[in-house]
Design goal:
The strands form 3 sheets. A 10-stranded mixed beta sheet has the order 16-15-13-12-7-10-9-8-18-17. A 6-stranded parallel beta sheet has the order 3-2-1-4-5-6, sandwiched between helices. Helix 1 crosses helix 10. Helices cover 27% and strands 25% of the residues. The radius of gyration is 21 Å and the shape is globular. Strand 1, helix 2 and strand 2 form a beta-alpha-beta unit. With 408 residues, it is α/β, with parallel strands linked by helices. The N terminus and C terminus are likely disordered. Bound molecules: nicotinamide-adenine-dinucleotide. The site of nicotinamide-adenine-dinucleotide has 25 residues, from helix 2.
Amino acid sequence: MTAAHRCANRSADAGVSLFRNSGAIDQNCGIGAAVHVAIVGYGTIAKMHERIIRGMGAHISVVDPAPQIVPYENAPPIWPAIAEVPGSIRDSVDIWLICTPTQHHLATLREVLAHSPQARVFLEKPACSSWEIPELEILLSRYPQAKITLNDQYLHSRCVPFLASLCRKETTGLPDSIEVSFTKDRRSDMARGRFVDNDYGVLGYEWVHMLSVLSGVIPPEAMTNYLTEAPEASLFETAHADDGSLSAVQEFSRIGSTALSMYSSFFQDRSGRGRPSMLSKHWHPYEESVGRHRCISLTYGDKRFSAEFDPVTSVGRLRLPRNKHRVLVERGSSVVLDVVVFDSPLENSIRKSFGLLLGSQPVVPWMDPVKRIATLSQYLRGGYQSRSATLAGTDNSIHPTSILPASQ
Ligand SMILES: NC(=O)c1ccc[n+]([C@@H]2O[C@H](COP(=O)([O-])OP(=O)(O)OC[C@H]3O[C@@H](n4cnc5c(N)ncnc54)[C@H](O)[C@@H]3O)[C@@H](O)[C@H]2O)c1
């Protein structure tokens, strides 16, 4: 019995065809020392995966034509291309982990499947470039024996179901408003050569995560309707970087009676969150950019439920330790509940996905989010009416535009 089979036996009941909103996390999928994971694209996110997967006891190989790595003891073997990995090693791979820049995802997946038609593949988000989605779907249909999961890690956050359960205690109805805001100042990353998304722009970084978080707090049918509705149903404000790329998007929409605000920026945060008034003993000095926030908040009358995800930073250059998230319930100006939740959505996602990939159940990647960002980025590139506007808090190097529904 191979390691993969042993793990499959353990994780078979973790298999659901689509893990969106499942809430189940298979924390017991120890994958065993003999499981062989090949990481293709050994950059920033790959190294985060590697730390977790090593901790699960896997054996790792790497493919990257330009790996940025200082040699260290027990470093994984690295090949410059999949075709150059010796056949015996390629054939022993249990799971392929694709962490190349998004524009290389489809080509990499195609190559993996050409070598291993039954491959088990964990694919970083977004699944592929916007124009490649139909090709990806055709490719998946051509390899029915293969299994592919997407790394939508916020689907596996424990913090979101916790927040949703607090809201459900309040009422079974929909909230008056939902605000999701994920920002990160990526200028230093870009300057040091980290991958830049010239296709989706800002939507290619955090928007899929934002959709995953949103899917955890609204009913599945409402989520599907929102994801598949035309962009004309929303109002957008955008900002562009000097090179013309989409650097910030503010979407205003409605989900039934709920007002929805979605905001993301890769330059700077404008959520205006200051240092939290509580929890001072948990906060650590933080020397890096604080231009990063990931949060959701829901209002029901005068009650507000919010979660601020790691990195929980403040303008006072303080932050909570890694994988600590803050959940807050307020009524008017009073704090009803203020707790820190420990959770690693990435580790949850890896464990869950590996369980599914090595298990016996079929897996269907959830494609609606990538289709949504493809539709939005295409829409926001043109075909709309625009007028000058100011995205409050943007800096001078970006050029804001407000995008109105075509009918206005
Ligand atoms: N799930 C998340 O939270 C998360 C976070 C960051 C990045 N990502 C996704 O991961 C992917 C990589 O992003 P990153 O920030 O790690 O990029 P990065 O620039 O840090 O690393 C990319 C690596 O891929 C290598 N590479 C390029 N083309 C390749 C090819 N054809 N074959 C093999 N290797 C190749 C590069 O040499 C580089 O080392 C992107 O799709 C991104 O959207 C997801």
